[in-house]
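Extended Data, record DNA-binding protein
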Amino acid sequence: MKHRKEPPGDKNIIGVRVVAIRKAKGMKQKEFLARLQTAGLDISPTSLSRLEGQYRLVQDYEVVAIAKALDISVRELLGEESE
């Protein structure tokens, strides 16, 4: 597993949670990308990596698709309710 060389960015608040939840579910980025496509969000591996590293802004429709792909609520993704 490659570790980030740079500290997290400040472009979004969900990147760190996406990584933590995805890993807690035993999901690799490739599988997560496939789930995102099923949820209607087609993004590149680079774009996902930038999102997870908080170097990329996240659109509202992407938040909904990400929560769906992780099988959690949007509120949970935003850290507003316990997992």
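Summary. Helices lie at 15-24, 29-38, 45-52, 60-70, 74-77.
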